[in-house]
Design a protein that fits this description.
Layout (H helix, E strand, L loop, with lengths): L14 H16 L12 H20 L1 H5 L8 H26 L5 H9 L16 H19 L8 H29 L3 H20 L11 H6 L7 H18 L10 E3 L4 E3 L5 H11 L3 H14 L1 H16 L11 H23 L7
Antiparallel strand pairs: 1-2
The site of Phenylacetyl coenzyme A has 29 residues, from α2, α6 and α9.
């Protein structure tokens, strides 16, 4: 009996086919080509992207809560409008990202279930409370600032839908950064209570913001895969360093200090060296034991339940819409609807004619 040269999988592919496909895939990545949803990709690439994009989407959505908390308490109408628009943008970012994740063959409702069950992570930073108005400025400056440093390279990542979503998102994040830095500048130039408030806020947010970039490279379990496949173009530590380098000058410009006694310019490396990050705190927050984890999850579940009727209405609308399509996808209108439409144009015609005879202008 002739022996089988290779094991075949369910679609009849041999192990050799698989190795060739991986090789071809990696060549495409090395050549800087974009991978698109219908292209072949290794399972691990698909899984890693689904994990990362969905956690990013959850972060944008949960990220609305700390700032949303201040919409009703913004000090002026201008600030209220700016904050409202910003929070709305974050919601939009979540939607783009869920759509990008869905191109990988997952369903958004399953991703939401993973968030609500506590299985999926979201950014650690959103588990800290917003205690003063200055926090809104500092989030815009530092949190959005860190997000931009982390996300601008993602706009050049190897997966097309993620990269394209990031272009739009980063433009909006840049606007958020400017808005936040403007609030910080005003407070830093204000009276002594305002200066104190903004400095106190920087002191609370600085270290958690450094943690946003993820664990140090030696503890980053996903970086190897993600960097080989050009999803992540830079390591966690290198982006964190870039952020520290930029923030020092920005803080100095508004006469604020960063709460790190070990912050020092290193002539040799050209970087600002910084103190030790409290990784124990980071992992505690990631595992659900941060100051606001419970509150954020409670709110997420409440919003999900409160929004049930909207999802049901959208589903019913979509089902009705589908019923009104012929097999070839063309719109089908019932006899009653066709009659009403005809009557509508009959009456519109009559009204126009009457208006015309009275010498009134008519809308065309
Ligand atoms: N928080 O192996 P790595 C924003 C987890 S959006 C919680 O290094 P990776 C906009 C990680 O999931 C902010 N968990 O992971 C905004 C992994 O666990 P897993 C979100 C974290 O993926 C502004 C484990 O630790 N941005 O701010 C965190 O290679 C203002 C090992 O870590 C993105 O999602 C963390 N900070 O690198 C909204 C950007 N870090 O999943 C409102 C895209 C790590 O294996 C207001 N994502 N973990 O169980 C990324 O760039 C990467 O996923 C990293 C993590 C860098 C976040």
């Amino acid at each position: 009996m002739e022996s089988q040269p290779h094991n075949r999988d369910i679609s009849g592919n041999t192990a050799l086919d698989e190795a060739q496909r991986v090789k071809r895939f990696e060549e495409r990545i090395q050549a800087g080509e974009r991978i698109e949803p219908k292209d072949w990709m290794p399972d691990v690439y698909r899984r890693q992207l689904t994990r990362m994009i969905s956690q990013h989407a959850h972060s944008e959505v949960v990220g609305m809560y700390p700032e949303g908390n201040w919409i009703t308490r913004a000090p002026t109408l201008r600030r209220k409008l700016g904050l409202l628009a910003k929070v709305q943008d974050e919601c939009g970012h979540g939607l783009y990202l869920y759509c990008a994740a869905e191109t990988l063959g997952v369903d958004r409702s399953d991703l939401t279930d993973e968030l609500l069950s506590g299985k999926a992570k979201y950014a650690s930073i959103f588990n800290y409370p917003t205690l003063s108005w200055a926090d809104i400025g500092v989030i815009g400056w530092l949190v959005d600032g860190a997000a931009i440093i982390n996300q601008t390279p993602l706009a050049k990542c190897s997966y097309g839908p993620y990269a394209r979503a990031m272009v739009h998102i980063c433009k909006e994040e840049s606007f958020h950064l400017k808005q936040g830095y403007e609030i910080v500048t005003k407070l830093a130039q204000g009276n002594s209570a305002q200066k104190e408030m903004v400095q106190e806020s920087v002191n609370r947010w600085w270290w958690p913001v450094l943690m946003m970039f993820g664990p140090s490279d030696s503890d980053s379990s996903n970086s190897e895969d993600l960097m080989r496949w050009k999803v992540k173009l830079f390591s966690n530590d290198s982006l964190r360093q870039r952020f520290v380098n930029g923030s020092v000058a920005q803080a100095k410009a508004v006469k604020l200090t960063l709460p790190d006694p070990d912050l020092r310019f290193n002539e040799e490396s050209g970087n600002w060296d910084y103190g030790t990050i409290n990784w124990d705190e980071f992992w505690q927050v990631v595992k659900g034991h941060g100051p606001c984890n419970r509150e954020r999850m409670r709110m997420s579940r409440k919003k999900h339940n409160d929004g049930r009727w909207v999802r049901e209405a959208a589903r019913a609308y979509s089902a009705r819409h589908r019923k009104n399509e012929n097999e070839d996808g063309k719109k089908y209108y019932s006899r009653k609807r066709r009659k009403n439409a005809a009557l509508g144009s009959f009456f519109t015609g009559k009204i126009r004619k009457a208006a015309h005879s009275r010498g009134q202008p008519t809308r065309t």
